[in-house]
Design goal:
The complex is a heterodimer of chains A (about 230) and B (about 200). With about 230 residues, chain A is mostly helical. Chain A contains 11 helices and no strands. Chain A has a single domain, classed as MetI-like (MetI-like fold, Orthogonal Bundle), CATH 1.10.3720. Chain B is of the alpha/beta class. The chains are: A mainly alpha (about 230), B alpha/beta (about 200). At the A-B interface, helix 6 and helix 7 of A face strand 6 of B.
């Protein structure tokens, strides 16, 4: 119980390091989501227009990849980026960029697979109207993604929740360097291992509140839009 | 007058399955064509085929393509993209302000064109969809009962388009019996017949 009180004191007192870590977490996961969205939404849209066996294969592959274990992605990138690995020359291991790459890889299948489903579920007239007016490809993308936006927005949210709360890739690729690559999840693991439960709980509460608040915020905006 | 669409020995349907066969057709600028036939006889399929949204199962179809200055199809319950009516008409006009304005005026839609499409009644949505199609300056308009739910004002506006716009051909689906259509003065009536006589793809 005292650990919880200490945790609340840490949050309320505005402990500089707690907020710095929170900032790194948001920056890394936010950037990863941005990259995954810029690639994943057009990819899902494009895949939704393909038919036949190859398209079905790619679609089921994407859905399978949404379950990628975070530590496996971490390990994979670790070997690619390590000094002796094929991408070792980039010198990215234990940087925020490496963490962003790992989380973007985790988010990408979720964003692409769920965008694909969202576009496929649009009513046929949405596609036929664009075809009949012979709208340019870019306009079609903008309109159809717009029509599917509620579902795509949920996909982005889900992807953010997944990367913001993941530990495996962040700890393997970031290395938990103070002031640099420490995120909420990696510090919680570290502080808990050290026995400093107050810090672990404080950071856990922040993680929980942000993860829930992002969800709640977006969903209430929806509610109003739909009313 | 110039022929916009020529159909010979046309069999229509989906995925290589024939739904109906169509009499040979030549549609010219200024033509008014009604498509008659029972429910499920393939009237919508024919319109979508003429509009190049569906490929014919067999036979030849030549002429204009889908899109501006070509063929534009309007659904029975029109699909409008999120935004205002004006946004939708602009899509048809490719941003050309004059075309947007003329189309909105033609459908007498100025009062509600700036409304969000979600707040529109069915009749208003139909008028916006018709304006959007007109704004694309089509040669051939394919109207799938999109003119059936209009109020008196909308109907008057639309009838004016039908009677005055001789630069475009209009093909309409109607469930009204053939004889009544002829009395209405529509130029050509095409009877779609469900037939298994067509070749299978």
């Amino acid at each position: 119980m005292t650990a919880v009180l200490d945790a609340l004191r840490l949050i309320v007192s505005g402990d500089a390091e707690v907020w710095q870590i929170t900032g790194v977490s948001l920056l890394v996961s936010g950037t990863a989501l941005l990259i995954a969205s810029v690639i994943g939404v057009p990819l899902g849209y494009w895949l939704a227009h393909l038919h036949g066996r190859a398209a079905r294969l790619v679609s089921s592959l994407l859905h399978t990849l949404t379950a990628l274990p975070t530590v496996v992605v971490g390990l994979l990138l670790f070997f690619l980026l390590s000094a002796s690995g094929p991408l070792g020359w980039m010198d990215l291991l234990y940087t925020r960029l490496a963490m962003i790459a790992g989380q973007a890889l985790l988010a990408l299948p979720i964003v692409a697979a769920l965008t694909l489903v969202a576009i496929e579920r649009l009513p046929l007239p949405a596609f036929e109207t664009a075809a009949s007016l012979a709208l340019p490809a870019w306009t079609r993308l903008r309109l159809l993604v717009g029509e599917a936006w509620p579902a795509i927005q949920s996909a982005l949210l889900l992807a953010f929740a997944r990367v913001f709360t993941e530990l495996g890739a962040a700890i393997i690729l970031g290395g938990n360097i103070r002031g640099e690559t420490r995120t909420l999840t990696t510090v919680i693991a570290l502080e808990h291992a050290k026995g400093d439960d107050a810090r672990a709980i404080a950071l856990g509460l922040i993680l929980l509140v942000i993860a829930l608040a992002v969800n709640a915020g977006v969903h209430s905006r929806f509610g109003r839009r739909r009313a | 007058m110039s022929v916009l669409i020529t159909a010979r020995g046309l069999a229509i349907g989906y995925d290589g399955r024939v739904i109906a066969t169509v009499p040979d057709l030549d549609i010219r600028r200024g033509d008014r064509v009604s498509i008659a036939g029972a429910n499920g006889s393939g009237k919508t399929t024919l319109l979508k085929t003429l509009g190049r949204l569906l490929a014919p199962v067999s036979g030849t179809l030549s002429g204009v393509d889908a899109g501006p200055s070509g063929a534009v199809y309007v659904h029975p319950s029109p699909f409008l993209y999120a935004g205002t009516g004006h946004d939708n008409v602009r899509l048809g006009a490719r941003g050309n302000a004059g075309d947007i304005e003329r189309a909105i005026v033609a459908l007498r839609a100025r009062d509600f064109a700036r409304m969000n499409v979600r707040e529109m009644s069915n009749g208003q949505r139909q008028r916006i969809a018709l304006a959007r199609a007109l704004a694309a300056c089509p040669a051939l308009l394919l109207i799938d009962e999109a003119d059936s739910g209009l109020d008196a004002d909308g109907r008057a506006a639309w009838n004016e388009v039908v009677t005055t716009r001789h630069d475009l051909a209009i093909v309409r689906v109607s469930h009204v019996a053939t004889t009544e259509l002829e009395r209405e003065g529509d130029g050509v009536v095409v009877q779609v017949s469900t037939g298994k006589s067509g070749k299978h793809g």
